[in-house]
Amino acid sequence: MATAGSLESLRELNRLRVIDALRQRGRASRSEIARHTGLSRTTVTTLVSDLQARGLVVEQPSAEVQESQGRGRPPTLLRLDPAAGAVVGIHFDHRHLRVAVADLSSTVLAERWEDLDVDHAATTALDAATELVDVVLGEAGLDRSRIVGAGMALSGPVSRNGTVGSTVILPGWAGLNAVDELEERLGMHVAVDNDANLGALAEISFGAGRGLEDVVYVMVSSGIGAGIVLGGQLHRGITGLAGELGHVHVRSEGVVCRCGNRGCLETVASTDAVLELLRPANGPELGVRELVELVSAGDVGARRVVADAGREIGRVLAGLCNILSPAAVIVGGDLGFAGSGLVEGIRDALDRYALPSVKEALDVQAGVLGDRAEVLGALALVIGDTDRLRSVGLAALNGELTTVS
């Protein structure tokens, strides 16, 4: 026979399922929540009433009028109350820092970025991030007491405990526990992940992969990483380092990669490799921004080199897709902005090297979130952390819900 305590624990878990559904969908009717969670409509109605009484959920009438029926009223949509809490997202890219704050319904309330050499100066980057967090919280009119936690995207390999594991990709961060350092500065819970993983999380939450459960997100920048989503969940592997696509061997006599191996994909298809090929004809100062402008202007050489990089990436992806059979490959990162050439090159190689049944079911497209994908993924990392909210008992949100033991 179930005890009162176990029944209350079940109700608490079901409340969190409703909250999680609203975080993922932004707005939803009671019927949609029931379908999403598998709970009965009666149970959802009861739970929603409870959450409304606690100040976590508010109603918003649907803007869609059922004109075709000529009568009746549209369904009432529910959303998390923006005043219930907020999260911070931080992206430490190699060349810049971006910080955003959003409410629990994933609405970005304020956002700032600045150019910064993140790779070689961890302390400087962390201090700058702390200052930008203060700026965006001020712009959003939020006190730190309303912040549930912060998500952190790093452009390098990060272990499960938050330690940066590379002396060559992020030399100023090697051996540093990024979570501990940022938690000490911000005074709040921090979650961290590789930026390719968080780009993938953003695209399936808000962008091109929304509604898909099996996706490979390819981030093509100074490195090449893959965020792998299987069954709707990020696949990080036993070490937390899954998706290092850029260090797959592609050239037996290739140049030595920064990882120490020879002929890695990164050495022939990253932004640095593409820029090196184009600088003799375009000058030694050619950068990513100028490269994108060249491609957009129809420069034949730039378009050729970017498409070739796409084909190299696509050959490696073909093997990965033959193994995983995802629904989509979504392309992001610096080169993801360089027109359709990169995506077309990837698609060409997949058409040639992937199994027929795999490529027929595969959609290849550019990401839609641009250079904001990783910071939006950092926000989603915290917004989607139901276990985190359960561990604090949602007390940080309204001081009423209790911890489930």
Describe this structure in words.
A hairpin with a 4-residue loop joins β4 (96-103) and β5 (108-115). With 405 residues, this protein is of the alpha/beta class. The model is unreliable at 64-70 and 392-405 (pLDDT under 50). The strands form three sheets. It has a five-stranded mixed beta sheet, with helices on both faces. The chain has a five-stranded mixed beta sheet with strand order 10-9-8-11-12, with helices on both faces. It has helices at 4-25, 30-37, 41-53, 122-140, 178-186, 195-206, 266-269, 271-282, 288-296, 300-324, 341-353, 356-360, 373-383, 386-391, 395-398; strands at 57-61, 76-80, 86-92, 96-103, 108-115, 147-154, 190-194, 215-220, 224-230, 233-234, 328-332, 363-366. The two termini are 19 Å apart. The chain contains 15 helices and twelve strands.
What descriptive keywords fit this protein?
single chain; 405 residues; alpha/beta; 5-stranded mixed β-sheet; 15 helices; 12 strands; 42% helix; globular; disordered C terminus
Strand content: 15-25%
Q: So how many helices? A: 15
How would you describe the shape? globular
Number of strands: 12
Give the helix proportion (percent range): 40-55%
Give the H and E element order.
HHHEEEEEHEHEHEEEHHHHEHHEHHH
Multimer state: single chain
Query: What's the pLDDT, averaged over the residues?
Result: 84
The biggest beta sheet is recorded as: 5 strands, mixed
Give the C-alpha Rg: 23 Å
Structural class: alpha/beta
Residue windows where pLDDT falls under 50 for at least 5 positions? 64-70, 392-405
**What distance lies between the first and last C-alpha atoms, to the nearest angstrom?**
19 Å
Provide the spatial order of strands within the biggest beta sheet. 5-4-3-6-7
